[in-house]
Specification:
With 413 residues, this protein is α/β, with parallel strands linked by helices. It has helices at residues 14-25, 55-61, 65-69, 108-117, 186-189, 191-197, 233-236, 244-254, 260-267, 299-302, 311-330, 335-369, 379-385, 398-411, and strands spanning 7-10, 30-34, 47-49, 79-82, 88-92, 105-107, 124-126, 130-133, 139-141, 144-146, 151-154, 172-183, 201-206, 209-215, 221-228, 275-281, 294-296, 387-388, 391-392. It has a 7-stranded mixed beta sheet. A 5-stranded parallel beta sheet has the order 7-2-1-11-17. The protein is globular, with a radius of gyration of 22 Å. The relative contact order is 0.16.
């Protein structure tokens, strides 16, 4: 029997760890090269909603769904979309495991820990930062050269070092930047904000700006204050972006005519957890000519802004479908040649799925942050673009969308 293909994965994020877990379950050898020195080297950010037909589907096949349920927050499905005066246009209560809409929340940190700890310790080689790849697929790391892998999978995110092997395209600035903030122990310290977020997510948009707040499982709130800005705004803004007090002061001035509870998210944010952020994306429909021995998944393949809530889900779906291709190839007389033959079909399917998510995210961003009069003037189109209560919005005429929105607000009272 032929030996299975030897797989190298670059990046120990959700897609890379999902792929490794699925391959190891099928007894296919795999090594993850991760640039960070350990799982605890930095904060993993906010919260994710995993979807039953993509991210959760991948977790179930990986045998990790029961572990996921230990941390899943079904009440985190609560969702509200409002304007700067806190007038709500969409409002939805949280759920339980029995009444779920199929989008429970989990902290990024908890998801990553579940995935990493499911792998044998030797699977991830921490502190291995990739610098470049030669045409013969020799990989150059800070520690030296690694080679003789049958497939290199770039799961290394927005600024992928694997992508140049397939595409000259680089992420482009979306036009949005701002602050990522945290409010710790919110229920005890600021019960009014805790109640406003309602264990889920609050999205407020007006005047080409947004403030979002999401409950995390560790008791904190993850807050984002993003608006239209120049790409080099941190250099031209006129204040010290390393000084948390100046960052807060500038943000409060920017949002000075917003409702007091919304401004309070900025005002009381922990000053040791403020990060400046600029949002990037790959062009919608990014694709490449298939090449034997190398491919991309997740943000490395189809980076989008976070306004569709689909990024991690489509990334884990990529990993799931790629695992199917690799596992099937491993059963053939010539696994490597079979894998090369099947890689193009996998990529074509991924291009289709990734493009759909990019279009959804970009449209949602344009409706809320680049359209005059949003959200009042764009909420109908926004709802039609997104999936609401399990219905495909494009199946609904505008009058039905308006009726649905009114019904959602009534039922949430």
């Amino acid at each position: 029997m032929s030996s299975p293909p030897k797989i190298a994965i670059i990046g120990a994020g959700p897609s890379g760890c999902t792929l490794a877990r699925l391959l190891l379950k099928a007894s296919i050898p795999v090594t993850i090269f991760e640039g960070e020195s350990s799982i605890d080297v930095r904060s993993q950010g906010g919260t994710l909603d995993l979807h039953s037909n993509t991210g959760i589907k991948a977790l179930k096949e990986a045998g990790l769904y029961d572990d996921f349920l230990k941390y899943a927050r079904f009440d985190g499905e609560a969702f509200a979309l409002a304007d700067k005066n806190l007038k709500k246009y969409i409002s939805r209560k949280g759920t339980t495991a029995e009444t779920s809409h199929g989008r429970p929340e989990i902290d990024r940190e908890q998801l990553r820990r579940i995935q990493v700890e499911s792998l044998p310790p030797e699977t991830i080689r921490w502190g291995c930062r990739l610098r470049s790849i030669d045409d013969d697929l020799s990989m150059h790391f800070d520690h030296g050269v690694e080679k003789d892998y049958d497939l290199i999978v770039g799961a290394d995110g927005a600024w992928s070092k694997v992508r140049p092997m397939l595409s000259k395209v680089k992420p482009v600035y979306s036009g949005l930047g701002g602050l990522d903030l945290e409010i710790s122990d919110v229920e005890k310290r600021y019960p009014d904000l805790y109640k406003l977020v309602n264990c889920g997510s609050l999205f407020a948009y007006s005047d080409y700006k947004g403030i979002t707040a999401q409950q995390k499982g560790d008791g904190s709130l993850s807050v984002h204050a993003w608006s239209q800005r120049e790409e080099n705004w941190t250099k031209t803004c006129g204040y010290d972006t390393q000084n948390p007090k100046e960052l807060k002061q500038a943000a409060l001035k920017e949002y000075q005519d917003w409702a007091e509870p919304l401004k309070k998210f900025i005002e009381v944010a922990d000053e040791d957890d403020i990060v400046t952020r600029s949002l990037y994306e790959l062009p919608v429909g990014h694709r490449w000519e298939s090449r034997p021995g190398v491919t991309l998944i997740g943000d490395a393949a189809h980076l989008s802004t976070p306004f569709a809530g689909e990024g991690v889900n489509v990334a884990m779906e990529d990993a799931l479908y790629l695992s199917h291709v690799i596992i099937a190839a491993a059963k053939e007389p010539d696994p490597v040649q079979t894998l090369e033959n099947q890689l193009k079909a996998f990529e074509e399917d991924m291009f289709r799925r990734g493009t759909a998510v990019q279009e959804d995210s970009r449209s949602s961003m344009l409706y809320m942050l680049f359209s005059p009069g949003a959200p009042a003037n764009t909420i109908d189109r926004y709802v039609r673009q997104r999936i609401v209560q399990g219905w495909k919005s494009y199946l609904l005429p505008l009058w039905a969308v308006r009726l649905l929105l009114k019904l959602m607000l009534f039922l949430d009272r």
